[in-house]
Amino acid sequence: CIIIDENAHYTDAGRSRTLIKNNICVANGGPGVAMSRSKNVDIVNNTFYRNNRTSLPTVVSHGEFMCQSMDASEKVEGRTVFTKCEDIVYRDNVIVGRSDRKVLVAEFGTVSVAYSGNVWVRTGFSAPSTDVVFPDGTQVVASPNETDPPQGDWRTVGSAAGRGAPWPLMSH
User: Fold this and answer.
1) How many CB atoms lie within 10 A of CB 121?
2) Which residues pair with 4 in a beta bridge?
3) What number of other Cβ atoms are within 10 A of residue 80's Cβ?
4) Mean pLDDT throughout 3-22?
5) Is the model's pLDDT at 9 over the cut of 80?
6) Residue 150: Cβ within 10 Å count
7) 81-127 pLDDT per residue, tens
8) Into how many domains does the chain fold?
């Protein structure tokens, strides 16, 4: 769905940030987000729903989020090039994984990712304490206003009273 490939090499030597926000990625062949050798990325307020549909053995273990680094820097046109995935923020996303995949997150090499406030739906997934994990099959909608998410139809039905409101998944 979303691919970031070596973002810090071609812009301003890694001083700016890349923002991935408010997307819905459903049933894509690869991960919801695939990153390679990039830095300074914020991935916030997205929904990743049963992606990684491929049967290719090189991609099938990438889950919903893949972050890949090279563990050494390189020189390109006299500049030191960032080859690690670092300063990545993965926050406030809803991730519904495929039950036939072993992983939801794949990290290759040395990576620096801060996870917080995410909702993961995958039985047996071990997430940071700042995230919430529900078992496979959990309905993660506040009200049944979506037409048919499993079939890719995310249009709202009726007035969708919760539109724009915070999403109360758990009562406190």
Assistant:
1) 22
2) 35
3) 11
4) 72
5) no
6) 11
7) 656 788 899 999 999 888 888 888 888 888 899 999 898 888 888 88
8) 1
Q: What mean pLDDT value characterizes the chain?
A: 76
User: Per this entry, what is the length of the chain?
Assistant: 172
* Alpha carbons 96 and 34: distance in angstroms, whole number: 16
Please enumerate in sequence order all residues whose Cβ is within 8 A of that of 163, keeping only pairs 6 or more positions apart, or say none: 156
Residue-range definition of the domain harbouring residue 140: 2-156
Within-domain flag for 169: no
Amino acid at 12: D
More confident residue, 46 or 2: 46
For 17, other C-beta atoms within 10 Å of its C-beta total: 12
110's tokens:
């040395």
137 beta partners: none
Whether residue 13 lies inside any domain: the answer is yes
Please report, as a single letter, which amino acid is at residue 28: N
Q: How confident is the model at residue 172 (pLDDT cuts 50, 70, 90)?
A: very low
Q: What's the pTM value of the predicted model, to 2 decimals? A: 0.73
Q: Residue 101: inside a domain, yes or no?
A: yes
**Rounded distance, CA 38 to CA 11, Å?**
11
Whether residue 139 is contained in a domain is answered as: yes
Residue type, 161: A
